């Protein structure tokens, strides 16, 4: 038998590496407390997560991202800023919601500038559709919120239609000054190109 010479990648500081990817995790255990939990799904380079975590030290932030380089960047950013309330999970977004997170554990989930998959033949790859909404409602606490932003008008309309057809979440107003909400890396980039972002906010009924 040929010995397995591959080494396991060491975890980054602040990286959440589940012992078992086929069992639910206990977020409180990873943070060491029961503070409110916010998820940044597809966090990219993590500017949003890091600024939120700095502003709200009394909340926990779990950033989910599939690209290793971006995961490393967020982990190191959290370490540099000495943030104790950030963990980064390198995993696929929908899988995380469907299988890793326990029921009713999330206070707010941020889905910011997800890939819009503009071509019709790729629409089935869009995250914002029924399986995502079902998984989202499972993990949100009663009264927990979804906050979604995109620069892509057609994806925004698509998302609104899917949300209405799903009927498991109630829409809320989201005026610009409602609460502290830093811009993401992609938002800054797109606004610099003159693009306009649209946002929606919805809540799981109490
Ligand atoms: C357009 S970027 C937006 C990043 C960040 N939210 C922002 O606004 O700056 C989308 C991010 O989601 C990540 N991503 C896309 N699909 C994903 C998936 N299925 N699971 C986890 N991450 C995903 C990409 O790697 C990328 O970093």
Question: What can you see in these coordinates?
Answer:
This protein has helices spanning 27-31, 47-55, 68-80, 93-100, 130-139, 153-166, 185-192; strands at 37-41, 60-65, 86-90, 106-112, 140-150, 170-172, 198-203. With 206 residues, it is of the alpha/beta class. It has one domain (27-203): 3-Layer(aba) Sandwich (Rossmann fold), CATH 3.40.50. Strands 3-2-1-4-5-7-6 form a seven-stranded mixed β-sheet. The longest helix has 14 residues, at 153-166. Residues 42-44, 64-67, 70, 92-93, 112-115, 184-187 line the site of S-adenosylmethionine. S-adenosylmethionine (SAM) is lined by residues 42-44, 64-67, 70, 92-93, 112-115, 184-187.
Keywords:
alpha/beta; Rossmann fold; 7 helices; single chain; binds S-adenosylmethionine; 7-stranded mixed β-sheet; 206 residues
CATH architectural category: 3-Layer(aba) Sandwich
User: Which class best fits the helix and strand makeup?
Assistant: alpha/beta
Rg over CA atoms, rounded to whole Å, is 17 Å
CATH topology call: Rossmann fold
How far apart, in Å, are the first and last alpha carbons?
Answer: 57 Å
Low-confidence runs of at least 5 consecutive residues: none
Number of strands: 7
CATH superfamily: Vaccinia Virus protein VP39
Report a brief summary of the structure.
This protein is of the alpha/beta class and 206 residues long. It has helices at 27-31, 47-55, 68-80, 93-100, 130-139, 153-166, 185-192, and strands at 37-41, 60-65, 86-90, 106-112, 140-150, 170-172, 198-203.
């Amino acid at each position: 038998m040929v010995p397995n010479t591959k080494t396991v990648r060491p975890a980054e500081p602040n990286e959440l590496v589940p012992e078992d990817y086929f069992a639910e995790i206990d977020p409180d255990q990873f943070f060491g407390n029961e503070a409110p939990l916010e998820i940044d799904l597809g966090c990219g380079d993590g500017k949003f997560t890091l600024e939120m975590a700095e502003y709200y030290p009394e909340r926990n932030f779990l950033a989910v991202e599939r690209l290793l380089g971006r995961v490393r960047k967020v982990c190191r950013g959290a370490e540099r800023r000495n943030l104790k309330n950030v963990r980064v999970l390198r995993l696929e977004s929908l899988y995380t919601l469907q299988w890793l997170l326990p029921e009713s554990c999330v206070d707010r989930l941020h889905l910011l500038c997800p890939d819009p998959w503009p071509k019709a033949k790729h629409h089935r790859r869009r995250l914002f559709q029924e399986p995502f909404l079902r998984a989202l409602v499972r993990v949100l606490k009663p009264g927990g919120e979804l906050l979604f932003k995109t620069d892509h008008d057609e994806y925004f309309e698509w998302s609104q239609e899917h949300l209405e057809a799903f009927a498991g979440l109630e829409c809320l107003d989201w005026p610009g000054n409602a609460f502290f909400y830093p811009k993401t890396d992609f938002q800054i980039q797109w606004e610099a190109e003159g693009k306009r972002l649209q946002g929606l906010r919805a809540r799981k009924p109490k």
